[in-house]
Structures are given as C-alpha cells and as structure tokens.
Amino acid sequence: MIRFKGKDKLFIFDRLQIQDDLLTQFEQALFFVKKHLNIRSEIKGINRKDILEIPESVLREGIANALIHRDYSLMGTNISIEIYDDRILILNPGSLPKGLDEKKFGKVSIRRNELIADLFYRMDKIEKAGTGIQKIKNEMREAGLSEPEFEFGYYFILTIKRPNLEHVPDKDGVKDGVKDGVKLTVNQEKIFKKIKETPHITAEELSAFVKINKRNVEKNISKLQELGIIKRIGPDKGGYWEVVK
Predict the structure, then answer these.
(1) In terms of CB atoms within 10 Å, which end of the chain has fewer, N or C?
(2) Mean pLDDT confidence for 105-114
(3) Same domain for 42 and 15
C-alpha cells in the first residue's frame, strides 16, 4: 500500500507492507486507505456526522474483492493499493476467472476462491455472492461521485476517483460562480455548471446529462440550494434557476 504525493507515481508519501492472515490484511488495508482520505462533517440538529470522501462500504468491497478473487497461483505478485491525490487504485493479480467475460462482469459471479469467499461472507465482510461490484457502483452513484472504472488484464484493476473537494478561487474569491471555500462533489459541480449554462434545464435533462437518476439529481440540487449557490425563480414548471452572486 502506497500513498503517492500528487497524481503521478513519483514521490512516496507513505507506505505499508502487510504479510499476515487475510483478515488482518483486510483490516490494515482499510485502515491505511481511510487514514489518507479527507473527512467532512455535517451538523444536523445537535449532532455531528463525519463523512468520508469515499463511502467506507466501497472501500470494504473493493479490498475484500481483491483478497477473495486474487489468483494465488501467480507467484511473485502482490495485491497493491495506490492512493493518489485524484484516485485510488486497487490492483489484484489475475484477470477475470475462466468462463466470465467482460459483458457478464458484475452480473454473474464466479468465485475463484470459494473457501475464502465463504469465510469473508461468514465474517460479514462482504455482501452475498455476486452483488459486490454492483454495490460499489450504486454506493458511488448515491454519494454523487464518479462511477468506478474496471480494467482486465494480467491484473484486475479497480479505479476509484476521488472527489474534487477544493475549488481554487479567482481574484474576487469566486471560481465559476462558486464562492471560495464551498466544497462540491463531482456531480454537484456538473449540475451547477449545467444550470449556469442552461437556467431553464429540468431535472430529467440533468439526469441524462450527469448520468444519475432523477432522485439523486434532486438531492444534489437541494444541497446546492442549502449552500446558497442557486435559487429557484418561479414554479417548478415554467420557472428557472438563478446562480446566486
């Protein structure tokens, strides 16, 4: 596990190597990744809730998936986790199991290591067989984050894109209409920019543009309104959005 400084594989900020039982590998890997991610806080009433920039459930599934589906017959290889400023890579030795092609990936489950999969399920570290990949996609979408990417080759690679939390301001303290210090998720930023370009755009049109369902579009719009970035002028039908200066 390596935390690189920046977006390239040049400068190592932190690293950890684990050679232990699979449960310890899982727990230590999860701890290492969480240590290098950002946390934001939300206040609801008198309670504060800390929110990890990437849902922990996504990290748990990604790490468990690598341990469960690794091809342990490939000698001289390791599971690797690389953390950059803009993404997390989980690299797993071994491509798709025999009998599973890319078209069926995420829909059909073929367990390369059945005993390990059963043990992780009994320890409540994974969902039932065949749901992990879809859960990762759903959790990222629900959090308003970019869809994960999957690569198949000698290594199976899961790429999780980190949200762009910081917005660099212009001289007047505003960047593209967003006030300095305001933090947006990737999807919120896309929605904001599209609303700025097309004030009369509908939730259905935003859903098609951002590629998330209408319910999640409306949740993101509500958040932008709470932040005081946009406001609705007129009724739902016939009205339009206005960017608050």
Answers:
(1) C
(2) 70
(3) yes
